[in-house]
Specification:
The complex is a heterodimer of chains A (115) and B (113).
Chain A lengths: L2 E4 L3 E5 L4 E3 L1 E4 L5 E7 L5 E7 L5 E3 L5 E5 L4 E6 L8 E11 L2 E6 L3 E6 L1
Parallel strand pairs in A: 2-12
Antiparallel strand pairs in A: 1-4, 3-9, 5-6, 5-10, 7-8, 8-9, 10-11, 10-12
Chain B lengths: L3 E4 L2 E4 L5 E7 L5 E7 L5 E8 L3 E3 L7 E4 L7 E4 L8 E8 L8 E2 L3 E5 L1
Parallel strand pairs in B: 2-11
Antiparallel strand pairs in B: 1-3, 3-8, 4-5, 4-9, 5-6, 7-8, 9-10, 9-11
The chains are: A mainly beta (115), B mainly beta (113).
């Protein structure tokens, strides 16, 4: 079965530190890749997405991610985090299965940024 | 002009009751989903549905059933509610094909007492 793995369950950083969150997926076909963010008490919002082309994608709020096909990875990065980045981050993979689209999420990474 | 809307936002009910959560999207998407988010924030897909196919996560109890009166709505019915059903339920929608992300509703926090 297709799956998405996020290696870090909880990451604690100080403001201005650099961030990298790992994401790996298992699926041999064509996939679309996403990172979503969930601020406390809110719904999921899209940070960035990869469909094709340049494997380095830039998203909102200074986030970026790199797709490495050979490693089945889509890691999220930010050079300098802010306190307001404290949230839950989800990696997701979308692929077609029959006539339906499947969207599978990783287990999430809680990011806490200390002021 | 909310893209994906769910009602109610909060739902408190007793064990054994039957309840429904409504979801509507105005994005013209042809695929809708229901996710369950537990207390550890894990997002588990429950259903993926378009007008051609319903995909059910095999771990979802048959007390849960999706009902779609039309392409813009996918309601979630839950029978004989149990304590373990307490969670936040998110509805989402996307296009079935092409390059598109999923858009999420605000979530429904269900508490079974």
């Amino acid at each position: 079965a297709q799956s998405v793995s996020q290696h870090n369950h909880h990451v604690i950083l100080s403001e201005a530190a650099s961030l990298e969150l790992g994401c790996n997926y298992s699926y041999g076909g064509t996939v679309n890749l996403f990172w979503y963010v969930q601020y406390p008490g809110q719904h999921l919002q899209l940070l960035l997405k990869y469909f094709s082309g340049d494997p380095l994608v830039k998203g909102i709020k200074g986030f970026e991610a790199e797709f490495i096909k050979s490693k089945f990875s889509f890691n999220l990065r930010k050079p300098s985090v802010q306190w307001s980045d404290t949230a839950e981050y989800f990696c997701a993979v979308s692929f077609s299965s029959g006539s339906a689209r499947q969207l599978t999420f990783g287990s999430g990474t809680q990011l806490t940024v200390l002021p | 002009d909310t893209a994906v809307s769910q009602t109610p936002k909060y739902l408190v009910t007793q064990m054994g009751n039957d309840k429904s959560i409504k979801c509507e999207q105005n994005l013209g998407h042809d695929t809708m989903y229901w996710y369950k988010q537990d207390s550890k924030k894990f997002l588990k897909i429950m259903f993926s549905y378009n007008n051609k196919e319903l995909i059910i996560n095999e771990t979802v109890p048959n007390r849960f059933s999706p009902k779609s009166p039309d392409k813009a709505h996918l309601n979630l019915h839950i029978n004989s509610l149990e304590l373990g059903d307490s969670a936040v339920y998110f509805c989402a929608s996307s296009h079935r094909t092409g390059h598109t992300e999923a858009f999420f509703g605000q979530g429904t926090r269900l508490t079974v007492v």
